[in-house]
Amino acid sequence: MAAHVQHHPEDQEFIIDQNGAGAELAYSQAGDTIDFTHTYVDEELRGKGLAETLAKAGLAYAREQGLRVRTSCEFMAGYVQQHQEYNDILA
């Protein structure tokens, strides 16, 4: 299942919409720090890698914007721990 990530900076979220069901990665930003605060995937879409797709998109955005990353979200904290290529942007 190909997933297209949309970034809505006005709502501070990255989302995936799949025929009315969806997934989101919420964040807050203060200065040069972005804090990924919450990840949610609708039940019928779980297990399809959408949270990982959102994580990659959010972290790519942080890197492109020169932001430092915090991970209040448990999923995101685990993700960056398993993917040490993001250590250089962690706050």
TrEMBL record:
MF annotations from Gene Ontology: transferase activity
Task: Report which superkingdom the organism of origin falls in.
Answer: Bacteria
Cross-referenced Gene3D superfamilies: 3.40.630.30
- Could you tell me the keywords of this UniProt record? Transferase
Q: Where is each N-acetyltransferase domain found?
A: 6-91
Q: Which InterPro entries match?
A: Acyl_CoA_acyltransferase (IPR016181), Gcn5-rel_NAT (IPR045057), GNAT_YJDJ (IPR031165)
- Alphabetized PANTHER family for the sequence: PROTEIN NATD1
Name of the protein in question = N-acetyltransferase
